[in-house]
Amino acid sequence: MVIGMGGGSAIDTAKYVAEATGLPLLQIPTIISVDAAFTAPYGYRDGSRVRYAGNLRPVEVICDPDLIRRAPVALNRAGVGDLLSCHTGMFDWRLAVEGGRGEVPWNEDAAALGRRVLDEMEAAAPEVHAVSEAGVRWLARVHRDVGAGCASYGARFEEGSEHFLAYVFEWLTNEHRVHGELISFCALAMSFVQDNDPELVVRLVRGTGVDARPSHLGISRELFGRMFTELPGYVAREDLWPSVIETVSLTPDLADRTFAHVWRATGD
User: Fold this and answer.
1) Backbone phi, then psi, for 176, in 5-degree steps?
2) Of 209, 221, 207, residue with least CA distance to 262
C-alpha cells in the first residue's frame, strides 16, 4: 500500500506513486489546506506551469482532528481557498454557458453543491477561524463532498478565473505559496472583476481568517498589474475554460481598482 501523509504536495505525490505502482492508496492529511486528499487527479509543475494528470481514488482517507489541529492555524484556515473558488468558478461557468462558450454544459446538481458549500461557510466561519475540532471536521467533510462532486460532475463548478490568476502568478514568479491563501486572494480579486457580490467573499475571508493579504503573498501593485496584463494570453495559450477574462477589458485602471479592493478587504 502507498500511504500519503502530509499536506497537498505529499498527498499528490502519493497519488502519483500509487498510480505508477498499481498499489492501493491510503491518504492521511495532516492539514486541511486543500482538497487534494479527496480528488482523483494530482497536480504537478511543468517548469512554472501547473498541470493535472492521473485519476486515482484512495481506498480510504483518514482525517484525525487532533493531528490536523497541531499544524499552524494559518495552514488549516487556508482550507477555505478551494471552497471560496466555487463563488467565482460558478459565475464563470454560467457566463460561458449563457454566452454560447460553454463546452461544459450547465449541471444544476453541481451548482447546488457549490451554493451549499458557500452557504455553510458563512455559518462555519467562526469555527474555521478558531481551527476548532468542529471547524476541522467541517473542512474535511466539505472537501470530501467537493471531491465527490468533481468525480461526478467535473471541476467546472469550483475552478475558474480565480485559479487562472493564481496560475499566472506562479508562472511569472516561479514561486510557490500556500495554495488556499493564494486562491483566496484571487477569489477576492476576480469576484470584483466579475462584479459578482465581492462583499460576500470579503466577509468569508475575514470571517474564516484565511491570510489573503497581498503583502503576505508577496504580490505588489506592480506584480499584480503584470498578472492582469498576462492573464488573457496565458488563458488562451493554456486553453483554459472560458471565463470573465474574455469578456472584460483588463485595463491598468481595472487592475488598480481591483488591487485597492483586495488591499482594503484584507486590511493590508
Assistant:
1) -115, 130
2) 221
C-alpha cell read off for 205:
475571508
Q: Does 192 score more than 70 pLDDT? A: yes
74-265: CATH topology: Dehydroquinate synthase-like, alpha domain (1.20.1090)
Every domain of the chain with CATH number 3.40.50.1970 lies at 2-68
User: Any residues with CB less than 8 A from the CB of 114 and at least 6 apart, and which?
Assistant: 86, 87, 89, 90, 149, 157, 158
Separation of alpha carbons 211 and 129, rounded Å: 11
Taking the C-alpha atoms of residue 190 and residue 80, their distance in angstroms, rounded to an integer, is 16
Amino acid at 44: Y
pLDDT at residue 138, rounded to an integer: 97
Quick one: average pLDDT of 228-234?
Answer: 96
Tell me what the pLDDT averaged over the chain comes to. 94
Cβ neighbours of residue 249 under 8 Å, at least 6 residues apart?
Answer: none
Topology at the third CATH level for domain 2-68: Rossmann fold (3.40.50)
For residues 146-154, average pLDDT = 91
Confidence class for position 142, pLDDT limits 50, 70, 90: very high
pLDDT digits over 5-16, tens only? 998 889 999 999
Strand pairing report for 49-53 and 42-46: antiparallel
Separation CA 101–CA 95 (nearest Å): 8
- The rounded distance, in Å, linking the Cα atoms of 159 and 70 is 29
Q: Where in the chain is the domain with CATH 1.20.1090.10?
A: 74-265
pLDDT reading at 48 higher than 70: no
